[in-house]
Design goal:
Blueprint (H helix, E strand, L loop, with lengths): L10 H35 L6 E11 L4 E11 L5 E12 L11 E12 L1 H15 L3 H4 L4 E14 L2 E7 L1
Parallel strand pairs: 4-5
Antiparallel strand pairs: 1-2, 2-3, 3-4, 5-6
Length: 168
């Protein structure tokens, strides 16, 4: 019986192995951190000079399929903390193959949306109407977006909380 000798790998091969393992570890960590980075970016970049702020929680990204799922989202007045819109379980789908067709490129679907009426909301609707009058249809891009929600609640703010006016 011949003796079997096990040799240690050469330093060059070991260095390559460490580099490949490091790259794989980095990519796995990046994939795990991407939803948190996107969530923080949206939450910090949400405010603008108009007084809006956005808040999103629980983002799930499936970039290769063009799907982003948001567990909870809200748009509110940053100064008064008054909510304009609250939504749960929203899914955004993007299909880049339909950009040059006359089909919907971007679809939004969700379980429930609450639209909260207040003096902040009514002044905001007037401002948006005035802004969109200045733009042409191609600048608004809403002709490529389709939205579908199971429940839409129109609510009104009152002293004791919110009261649902209409459920669609």
């Amino acid at each position: 019986m011949k003796p079997i000798y096990i040799s240690r790998p050469e330093p060059k091969n070991r260095a390559r192995l460490y580099i490949i393992a490091g790259i794989i570890l980095f990519l796995v960590a990046l994939r795990a951190m991407t939803p948190l980075l996107v969530e923080n970016y949206i939450n910090h970049a949400g405010g603008d000079e108009k007084g809006y702020a956005f808040r999103v929680d629980d983002i799930d990204l499936k970039i290769w399929r063009g799907v982003v799922t948001v567990g909870e989202a809200r748009v509110y007045n940053a100064k008064t903390n008054q909510n304009f819109v609250e939504a749960n379980d929203i899914t955004f789908n993007f299909d880049p193959t339909k950009i040059f067709d006359d089909k919907k490129v971007f679809t939004i679907s969700g379980r429930e949306v609450d639209i909260i009426l207040s003096k902040d909301f009514s002044s905001e609707v007037k401002r948006v109407k005035n802004e969109t009058k200045k733009k042409t249809k191609s600048e608004v891009y809403l002709d490529k977006v389709e939205a579908e929600f199971k429940t839409i609640n129109v609510q009104q703010n009152e002293e004791g909380g919110t009261r649902t006016l209409i459920t669609l």
